[in-house]
Write a structure and sequence with these properties.
alpha/beta; 2-enoyl-CoA Hydratase, Chain A, domain 1; three-stranded parallel sheet; isomerase activity
């Protein structure tokens, strides 16, 4: 059996090494399994304190995707077998996934994420944790959870709420596919390199004068990536998010009823906006309410508090929300005809939303209690 995730170290002229993580299930677009998450947590924890490792790189096998999210089938099957109960599978997967994301955010050493091809859901959770987030002309980045009865988790409560205007809310509701320019605009990417420059980048990294000084290493990598980005800025595609920021803000203005009405009555010739509109209106009405609850968190919560909030909501979604039906329709039966618990956004019971956003754990018993 092929290893689902491969760990290598690259030697450099400085004598320091670079730790390379390759997600390696190309046929499944490198979607994260629990085993992959656990293996990465173990290896990255080692590399974090290994003085010979100056920097780490995360990338995906093949040319289609860095990581198309999490493989949620095991959670689905466990949840179907235990209706209305929070399962060990859901707890374990989301807990370990968020621990891994949080580790990347707190890593200290430079973390380069090669965000080429598809980067969705859980893949974006990994990417957001990187200090050096490279996008290419093939990057397609999205948070499509509204289509499966979830909401943009993996730290989305932190990074979506810090994007320009109402962009974060728009991305959560519509699952809009960002290109490289969009990603740079909302700060999910911070460097732009051509997809065929991966090997030259690795070669150049091997020649840097790495040391055991993290801030110096960050600067070295930033300088290299800035030099590699510079020649391509003129050919960067246009960003719809940037270009239509004021229209997006108007479309997303007001409360959930207003936004639903604005999206329903939207008449546009723009293909990308039509797709966004269609996805949002077909999405789970419960997800809509959760995405609004998430937006209402604003920027007051720390990253650690965001992950704690998300863990409660995510496991609740699997037991009493639309998650199972969303996964069934999209991934299991693939009929793309989900029968959501509520017919539309107006019909969603406020008690259900409040149940979903209430943590199932006391603060001291929370699986992420050690996040500070």
């Amino acid at each position: 059996m092929t290893q689902e995730v491969i760990f290598q170290t690259l030697g450099t002229l400085s004598g320091q090494s670079i730790g390379v993580v390759t997600l390696n299930i190309e046929k499944a677009l490198n979607a994260l399994t629990l085993d992959m998450v656990a293996a990465m947590q173990t290896q990255l924890t080692r590399w974090k304190t290994d003085n010979s490792i100056a920097c780490i790189v995360l990338n995906g096998a093949g040319e289609k995707a860095f990581c198309a999210g999490g493989d949620v089938r095991a959670i689905y099957h466990a949840s179907i077998a235990n209706p209305n109960k929070i399962t060990a599978q859901a707890c374990e997967f989301f807990t370990q996934e968020y621990q891994l994301d949080y580790l990347l955010h707190q890593f200290g050493k430079p973390v380069l994420v090669w965000g080429d091809g598809i980067v969705m859901g859980g893949g974006l959770g990994l990417m957001a944790g990187g200090s050096h987030r490279v996008v290419t002309e093939r990057s397609r980045i999205a948070m499509p959870e509204v289509t499966i009865g979830l909401y943009p988790d993996v730290g989305g409560s932190y990074f979506l709420n810090r994007m320009p205007g109402k962009t974060g809310l728009f991305l959560g509701l519509t699952a809009y596919n960002m290109n490289a320019a969009d990603a740079l605009y909302v700060d999910l990417g911070n460097y732009y390199v051509n997809s065929d420059e991966k090997e030259p980048l690795f070669d150049a990294m091997a020649e840097l004068t790495w040391s055991q000084d993290n801030s110096q290493n960050h600067q070295l990598l930033s300088d290299l990536l800035t030099r590699m980005t510079q020649p391509h800025l003129a050919s960067l595609p246009s960003s719809h998010l940037h270009q239509f920021q004021s229209q997006i803000d108007l479309l997303m203005a007001g409360d959930i009823v207003d936004v639903h009405h604005q999206l329903t009555s939207l008449n546009t010739e723009l293909d990308w906006l039509k797709r966004a509109q269609k996805t949002a209106l077909a999405g789970s009405p419960i997800s809509w309410h959760l995405i609004f609850a998430q937006a209402a968190l604003g920027t007051n919560l720390s990253l650690a508090e965001c992950f704690k909030w998300e863990l409660g909501v995510s496991v609740n979604c699997c037991s009493i929300g639309d998650f199972c039906e969303g996964v069934r329709a999209l991934l299991i039966d693939k009929d793309r005809q989900p029968k959501w618990l509520f017919a539309d956004v107006d019909a969603v019971d406020a008690n259900k939303v409040s149940q979903l956003v209430t943590s199932p754990w006391a603060a001291n018993k929370h699986p992420l209690a050690d996040f500070t």
